[in-house]
Amino acid sequence: MASSLAARQAATLARLYSSKPAAQAASLVQRRGLSGAADHHGPPKVNFWQDPMSPSKWKEEHFVIVSLSGWGLLFFSGYKFFTGGKKNEEEKLAEASH
Fold this sequence. Notes:
Elements: H1 2-16, H2 21-28, H3 60-83, H4 89-97
């Protein structure tokens, strides 16, 4: 076991001190695999107020905000529509006395 460890260390040292330092330095440089945050894939995204009729072109965060606002408006207006017509009898009595 000690001999295999010594052999690995010798091989590593031989690789480090080889006669091709430029080629070896290039092999030791870390590559930036999937970290391409600056790479744009597809058409550029725009603010929703710049192109309001094309949601596919909107920025993701703008699409989320507009979608949640729309669903909120839909639920609230539905709630008001279905429950707004019912008034309490006390309100009717107060209106009649004026």
